[in-house]
Specification:
This protein is an alpha+beta fold. The protein has two domains: 113 residues, Phosphorylase Kinase, domain 1, CATH 3.30.200; 212 residues, Transferase(Phosphotransferase), domain 1, CATH 1.10.510. It has ten helices and 19 strands. Strands 4-8-9-7-6-5 form a six-stranded mixed β-sheet, sandwiched between helices. The chain starts with a strand and ends with a strand. Belongs to the protein kinase superfamily. This is Protein kinase domain-containing protein. Keywords: ATP-binding, Kinase, Nucleotide-binding, Serine/threonine-protein kinase, Transferase.
Amino acid sequence: MGCFWFSRHKSGVEPSEADGELSVTEKVKIYKYKEIRQATDDFNALNKIGEGGFGSVYKGHLKDGKVAAIKVLSAESRQGVKEFLTEINVISEIQHENLVKLYGCCVEGNHRILVYNYLENNSLDKTLLAGGYTRSGLQFDWSTRANICVGVAKGLAFLHEEVQPHIIHRDIKASNILLDKDLSPKISDFGLARLMPPNMTHVSTCVAGTIGYLAPEYAARGQLTRKADVYSFGVLLMEIVSGRSNKNTRSPTEYQYLLERAWELYERNELVDLVDIALGGVFDAEEACRYLRIGLLCTQDSPQLRPTMSIVVKLLTEEKDIDTKKITKPGLISDFMDMKVREPVETKTEEVNRCNYTNPSSYNVSPSSRTSDNSNGYSSGASSTNAVYSLSITN
């Protein structure tokens, strides 16, 4: 990667890149590379807390006393500058108790570094979905899980309905939900975020995100609306309640896909069987089943039938009742088993980074596959688990 100059702009959150110049909002603090090196003890391996396709994450101590998570994007990474700029500009303009806080960034030469607030308890996929208390030492009782679900829903509702223009995250998943010392959730990784212009029903874009969380209409046609995030949240909601990932190849075939299993149990009026056995039976069965029904509402095949995130918050907090008659069959992962990832067409590097980037290790990947990523939820842009895909559907 070549060197880039750095400048500021005042014209909203949309990133720009021209003539090798990086442009970011004036609200972003600029750190010198020397300061970042000092904060991480010269990027000491003992301070590394995560690693992914984008580069590495280090725990650092800044001069002002703040503890930070420092994302160092690899200079050899095939990720584009656009994803880097998107994350800076989107997250710097907004603040919410359920979103990560960006302290600033560093751009010197070919160094691209993001500095976030450090969150003590890692991400949901590395804790709850990796064995919960047994492996992480954290206790995810029912009250904690319910608070996480509501917190993520409130964060998404804020992005979808309160921020102007509205923001679609595009990569809601367990690894992008970080937990602070009190296990309160923070939505992270805005590298794939898109703005929803006023008076537009959808944005046509290249498919990006993580297979397993992708809404059917978005995966098949590239039509992006806020309802794609709602679908992803529905999958995440079921993962939190069940304590299992949306796909588990170690389970018997009929139990591998979480959405399929949930629908089967719903039709038999046995949803309670999906609740995590690690809870030891200590949970509110009625509330847990209500959460699973909300998950089904969010993952319905038709985006028009899915609720908005503000309605989801009301359903979770019982400010609004669920109309079970409106629950229809979800868009199931198995319906896209023939989905394949095309190798990128020969094009300029800039275009590959923005639209046609495909992780070389994930060619011909089916929706059932997930590449392990130790990114600690601070990943940015198209890493090994959230590549931007060019998809084809075969019969």
